[in-house]
Each structure stands twice: as structure tokens, then as C-alpha cells.
Amino acid sequence: xxxxxxxxxxxxxxxxxxxxxxxxxxxxxxxxxxxxxxxxxxxxxxxxxxxxxxxxxxxxxxxxxxxxxxxxxxxxxxxxxxxxxxxxxxxxxxxxxxx
Length: 99
Fold this sequence. Notes:
By secondary structure, the chain is an all-alpha fold. The chain has one domain (20-98). Helices cover 61% and strands 0% of the residues. The protein is built from 4 helices and no strands. The chain has helices at residues 24-29, 32-39, 50-60, 64-98. The two termini are 19 Å apart.
């Protein structure tokens, strides 16, 4: 049985010299440190990241309901975005395999 030659996506084609960084997604998610160190959340609370704002409301302001609502909304939003990206990735892979 003859197997077809696998096709490479243009962005991941080794002959083009483009390499994917396996730790790139880790760096994208670690935005809290630089933002907080540079701005300390100010002016006011304008540059607080949502996860820290939820923590601040929950524990520092002792507004448990509000902090829990923010955390739940973030979880739902991140889950929806993740599902959309995963479905798009699977669709692209199926389309690529059909070629």
C-alpha cells in the first residue's frame, strides 16, 4: 500500500525555516507580572487584569459575590473562546487532510 506524502501547512513547512515555539502559549498567558510591576494597577484600577481584579474584590474588598461572579464570567468566556479555537483547528486539520 502506498501512503501519500504528507502535506505541510505553509507556516509549519520545515523548508521555509519557520519554527514553532512550544512555549509561546505559556508566555502569552503570563501577562499579569509585567502589567502589575509596571503600573501597580493604576491610574485607579484601569490596568488591572481581570483575574487579579476578581481576586482583589473577593479577598481584599470582601465582596465575595462580586468576585465570584467575575471569576465565573472569566471561566465561561475562556471556555467559549477555547471551544471556538479547538473547533476551528479541527476543521482546518480535516480540510488539510482532504487535500
